[in-house]
Specification:
heterotrimer; A alpha/beta (377); B alpha/beta (175); C alpha/beta (275); A: 377 residues; alpha/beta; Rossmann fold; seven-stranded mixed sheet; five-stranded mixed sheet; 39% helix; globular; C: 275 residues; 10 strands
């Protein structure tokens, strides 16, 4: 175990390299640019490739193209760039091509607040690309967790053959803090399943009984197959609307049916709590500081922090809603994740939101007063 | 040691972020927790720039500096901008070229940081390291050994000797 | 009976193709396949990437590693494929709208990088898949379903664009001149760098009907009669040049190729024992 002072964006690249990333394509944008810069320095040292593309769209496209050759790939961006990634994010979903898309969020809409933090892309991560789909999005809250979560993002992408979104906060992405680099024995690396059948028998999108993720051959390995953004059957060739339902249902179910495997979360001081804060990323750190102070004053309060933000940790939120009589969703937006928490927990308990849009982190003092106000009422 | 908050301010290009990183890393070498962050405007040079460092024996939850314990200002612009964010009883370290702000609830050290960099060391860019020496001499936040080690690990190759000299000049100025 | 070329390189289960009666896309596709065959490339080492539009359906019919991407993005995907695995022969099949309107940015930058991709633009001067809207190569004054009063946009000369942007091989052929087109594609594939081949093809269904170009046969004859070989072009008067275009090889100047340049960086900076 090595202890280092590391920036969040740097930890993202370090984690990605540890997970086996050997290709990065992207476009410069604040506040994610350090990820591209560090990737450009480090990848050649590992025999990997970095390319600065002509725009955000092509950054996403090139990452997908590289992944099809059997290589783990990543792209990173921020708000406006994340909007442009959505087109080919959908392609990676329907084509079932593993890759990691990092979005170091900034204030929006449009150019918004380029250097200021925001948690305003929660819903875009979920529904940004058109059409019905499910998505995996992860949301770490410290430099060390960025490292671990980036590795996990690659693992989930490979395991479920899907793009995985890593949502970072500008604050965590840019700050430096202590990180203990774990030893190899502490790290699990998952690689995509390769076909065991002969090239002749291979059907690119056929799933084995009891499985929902097809085996994936790399381009150039003798398994010649077709990848398209059109609805397709198990051979991968375009098919009519009769195949749409079964394909889309499988794409959704391979994620939704594995929520227990995919979802990770943190429960903080919830054992005896009657009030819960739901929070993530940098805001959750303010919440922890607030809870420590409120506990000193006798408040029975804790926090539920989703680390996997999509799919929702639904079971856990229902459990929570039956235990506490008040949930406050604290997030740096106008109430996006609140909609999800309210949908899941709203029938069992009171769900409130607290947010802000001015590019300033929510402070522990603010959270304390929000909790106290509601408590008195 | 309880949470201590430092705000290092000046203009873009003065190396304040590097100074913040060095201070945070030195704290890590001492077995403490540290968070370093910065905010910046669109300009790469000039403007008011700041680096923030939080050092604590405990876990650092809230990662931002609010009312700091120590404020360093190398320019008038940054001093004017950040002086109100220095808590009562806090320490202000300013370059002697800056007029002392009218606050009687703080301790102010006005020292020839920029001049020492130019005249004694012949290198204006080491003002940030001189300032670090001053901060540590006054606050004793980290050990001298850790601070030296952190300086050596973060400054460009070939400038080690110069920077260690700058750090020592800082110690002397604050005595 | 299908020919040996069809048997060897086409996915018979995906045929018949969706192209209209009289469309030149089938001929251009066959020229690509015959060029691959003539060069003896291993099917496992060929990757065909396409975008969206009539032409881009070709990838599905061909028995290679095939990738049918989003509108305009074929070159961006292909860049990822090629850089990640430079041993693949990467071929991009695209249309005039796909490559020069929505994908115009990717085209100029792929040319600039001189990445070893051979791009064949099936230029039928119209958006066929969506029903006959004018494209960046619809000649000024001609009609489309969105240019009902005649197109006022000046049209692109795609070969000049590619050359100016830095492609190291640039050529134009036609669906009528299949033998020449095959040769041009072969030369493009041989070029270690970005090769751009514009294949003029006919769209009788939309472009032809909208602009009263006559029957399928008339349209093919028009392609034949409008194409002028390189050296004959100079002898034509300005008047004679009206409505005609040059065919042949315009540019063939090898220069450093992108993936080779990157491999040099790796060779220099790779860590000892790095993966």
């Amino acid at each position: 175990m090595t202890i280092k002072l590391m920036q969040g964006n740097e930890a993202c690249v370090e984690g990605a390299l540890r997970a086996g990333m050997r290709f990065y394509a992207g476009y410069p944008i604040t506040p994610s640019t350090e990820i591209a810069e560090i990737a450009s320095v480090e990848l050649p040292k590992y025999g990997g490739k970095f390319i600065q593309m002509e725009d955000e769209i092509s950054g996403m496209a090139a990452a997908i193209g590289a992944s099809l050759t059997g290589i783990k790939s990543m792209t990173a961006t921020s708000g406006p760039g994340f909007s442009l990634k959505q087109e080919n994010l959908g392609f990676a979903i329907i084509g079932e091509i593993p890759c990691v898309v990092v979005n170091v969020q900034r204030g929006g809409p449009s150019t918004g607040l380029p250097t200021a933090p925001s948690q305003g892309d929660i819903m875009q991560a979920r529904w940004g690309t058109h059409g019905d789909h499910s998505i995996i999005a992860l949301y770490p809250n410290s430099v060390r967790e960025i490292y671990d979560t980036t590795i996990r993002a690659f693992n989930l992408a490979e395991k479920y053959r899907t793009p995985v979104i890593l949502l970072l906060d500008e604050i965590i992405g840019h700050m430096r803090e202590k990180i203990e680099i774990p030893d190899d024995s502490e790290i699990e690396i998952i690689n995509r399943k390769k076909p065991t059948c002969s090239p002749k028998e291979y059907k690119a999108y056929k799933v084995k009984d009891g499985d929902m993720v097809p085996e994936m051959a790399p381009f150039g390995s003798g398994y010649r197959f077709h990848v398209t953004g059109l609805v397709h059957g198990e051979t991968g060739f375009p098919a009519g609307s009769d195949k749409s339902e079964s394909l889309l249902n499988r794409l959704i179910r391979k994620i939704e049916d594995n929520v227990d495997d995919i979802c990770t979360y943190d429960e903080y001081m919830l054992e005896d709590a009657d009030t819960a804060i739901v929070s993530f990323g940098c805001t959750s750190r303010s919440a922890i500081a607030a809870i420590k102070n409120l506990r000193k004053e006798g408040y029975k309060i804790g926090m539920f922090r989703p680390i996997t933000i999509w799919p929702s940790p639904e079971k856990k939120l229902i459990e929570l809603s039956k235990k506490v009589n008040r949930i406050v969703v604290v997030e740096m937006n106008a109430g996006q994740y609140f909609l999800e928490v309210d949908r899941i927990a709203g029938k069992n308990t009171q769900v409130e939101k607290y947010g802000r849009l001015n590019g300033e982190i929510i402070t522990p003092d603010e959270i304390i007063s929000v909790i106290k106000e509601g408590h008195n009422a | 040691m309880k949470r201590k908050e430092f705000r290092l301010s000046g203009s873009g290009g003065q190396g304040l972020i590097t100074a913040g990183i060095i201070l945070a890393e030195a704290a890590l070498f001492d077995g403490l927790n540290a968070v370093q962050s910065q905010s910046y405007g669109p300009e790469a040079r000039g403007g008011a720039s700041k680096a923030e460092v939080i050092i604590s024996e405990e876990e650092i939850d809230f990662p931002k500096v609010t009312d700091c314990d120590v404020l360093l200002s190398l320019t008038k612009l940054s001093c004017d901008k950040y002086i109100s964010g220095l808590r009562a009883g806090g320490i202000l370290i300013i370059d002697e070229s800056i007029e002392k702000p009218e606050r009687d609830d703080i301790i102010t050290y006005s020292l020839p940081i920029l001049k020492t960099a130019v005249t004694t060391l012949n290198k204006p860019m080491v003002a940030n390291i001189i300032a670090l020496g001053i901060i540590n001499q006054i606050t004793k936040i980290v050990s001298k050994e850790s601070l030296e080690k952190a300086v050596l690990s973060r400054v460009p190759k070939g400038t080690e000797e110069l920077n260690i000299k700058a750090l020592k000049e800082g110690f002397i100025l604050a005595r | 009976m299908p020919s040996n070329i069809v048997k060897k390189y086409y996915r018979s289960n995906t045929l018949p193709h969706i192209w209209c009666h009289g469309c030149g896309n089938g001929i251009v596709t066959r020229c690509i396949v015959k060029a691959i065959d003539a060069l003896g490339l291993d099917k496992n080492d060929v990757c065909v990437v396409s975008g969206i539009g009539c032409s881009s359906r070709a990838s599905g019919y061909l028995d290679f590693n095939t990738l049918h991407t989003t509108h305009g993005r074929a070159l961006a995907f292909a860049t990822g494929v090629k850089l990640a695995n430079p041993k693949l022969h990467v071929i991009v099949i695209t249309g005039d709208g796909d490559s020069s309107a929505i994908g115009g940015n990717h085209l100029i930058h792929a040319c600039r990088r001189n990445i070893d991709i051979t791009t064949i633009v099936f230029n039928n001067n119209i958006y066929g898949m969506t029903g006959g809207q004018y494209s960046p190569t619809t000649p000024t004054g001609e009609k489309g379903t969105t240019a009902p009063y005649g197109n006022i946009d000046p049209n692109f000369d795609l070969c000049s664009l590619a050359k100016a942007a830095g492609a190291s091989y640039v050529a134009r052929g036609t669906a009528y001149g299949a033998v020449q087109l095959q040769k041009l594609i072969e030369n493009g594939l041989k070029n270690k760098g970005f090769s751009f081949i514009e294949a003029i093809t006919a769209c009788p269904t939309y472009y032809g009907r909208k602009n009263k170009k006559g029957s399928v046969v008339n349209m093919m004859e028009l392609v034949r009669d409008s194409a002028v070989v390189n050296n004959a072009w100079e002898k034509l008067s300005d008047e004679q040049k009206q409505g005609k275009f040059i065919v042949g090889e315009f540019y063939n100047e090898p220069r450093p190729e992108y993936t080779e340049q990157y491999d040099k960086i790796i060779a220099q900076y790779r860590k000892e024992g790095g993966l």
